[in-house]
Amino acid sequence: MTPTAQPGSVALSGRPDLTGSSVGSTGTPGRVRRWGLVLAVLALLAACAASVGIGSRTVAPAQIWQALTDPSVSTIAAEAVRSRIPRTVLGLLVGSSLAVSGALMQGITRNPLADPGILGVNAGAAAFIVIGMAYIGLDSASQYIWLAVAGAALAAAAVWAVGSGGRGRPTPLRLALAGAVLAAVLTSITQAVLLPRAQLLQSFRTWQAGGIEGARFDQMTGVLPFFLVGAVLVILSGRALNSLALGDELARGLGVNVGRTRLLVASAAVLLAAASTALAGPIGFVGLIVPHAVRALVGADNRWVLAWSVIVGPLLLLLADVVGRIVTRPTDIQVGIVMAVVGAPVFIALVRNRRFAEL
Questions:
Q1: Is residue 4 part of a domain?
Q2: Which of 6, 17, 268, 283 is geometrically suited to a Cys-Cys bond with 233, CB 3.0 to 4.6 A?
């Protein structure tokens, strides 16, 4: 008798059947996933408390609660907490968006090294933003978000086109190399635009390192629609992304329009990465580390991977931001620098691991 692959099992082809069930390819029960997600949410709440309570001045938990619940309190501790709230909210937005964007890119390309930074998407958004600053006079995230989206989309399309050249489908190595080369080219263009403009160069250096300090709600409001549209596209693409993981032929057999699904997923990934870059600069490695960590816990079902990435992404980013505040008190190390220190060894480990030939 020929064995039949059950939902959530590994089919005879060696690829996971992800078309539905509470048990993923790793055998992770749905109950474990759900309770684990609850614990992750609690950890994120603790990270938010640390984000508003720790800085050049540390605020006790009781004072944090008082500052959040009683607007009439105007102590130094309360004002410190309130001044950190926009920074924490931006960390939540950017961390979730970058983690989900990385998970989508890894799913659509079946490339475990995919990440908005590694594939040059952040570099494309940054280059177009600099051009807008230098030649159009744009000076806020709500003004240059359209340029960020255009730059990110063109960079993603260019990397896919270069990585798809020649025989066969794109491989993780070809895509990573194409992203590295394109990022280097775009960085050179960015520097060429900046060098004759000393004043712009000085302000860009801080933004380029990637950080969430100095966050303001008025800037976030102008970019929020892009996050919302990206989130809607993510919700629509979770099940279809599972079908793509089975391979294009099997996905078509299941009735999935492969081209349209790839465009939907790519649009969501580009929107989220571009909006994050516009607000916080090109922060790398969040989209690389988080999806891999999440898959190790919940399996390969992309619906669970995306749900967990929404929580684990900001958890990682906020913790990195808190570490950056502690190690050099009373000044801060930008979170993009902390993530680079954490992410570079992880990237090297993934490259050296032969099991990550494809997702």
A1: no
A2: 268
Collapsed DSSP state (helix, strand, coil) of residue 111: coil
With beta carbons less than 8 A apart as the criterion, state whether 9 and 236 touch. no
Q: Scanning the structure block, which residue is given the tokens 């801060």? A: 332
Task: Look up the domain containing 327 and give its range.
Answer: 73-356
Share of the chain above pLDDT 90, in %: 31
**How many distinct structural domains can be found in the chain?**
1
The CA distance from 263 to 41, in Å, is 31
Token readout for 97 is: 């968006």
- Cα–Cα distance for residue pair 209/283, rounded to 1 Å: 7
Sequence-separated contacts (24+) of 244-250 with Cβ below 8 Å: 244/107, 244/108, 244/110, 245/15, 245/16, 245/18, 245/107, 245/110, 245/300, 245/302, 245/359, 246/11, 246/15, 246/16, 246/17, 246/18, 246/19, 247/13, 247/15, 250/15
Pair 174, 163: CB distance under 8 Å:
yes
User: Which residue, 162, 157, 188, 184, is CA-closest to 173?
Assistant: 162
Report the C-alpha gap between 4 and 11 in whole angstroms: 8
- Structure confidence by residue, pLDDT tens digits, 344-357: 887 777 767 655 54
Predicted confidence at residue 177, as pLDDT, reads 85
pLDDT at position 170 is: 66
DSSP state of 356: G
How many angstroms separate the CA atoms of 129 and 139, rounded? 9
Has residue 174 been placed in a domain?
Answer: yes
Q: Does the predicted TM-score (pTM) go above 0.90?
A: no
Helix/strand/coil for 10: strand
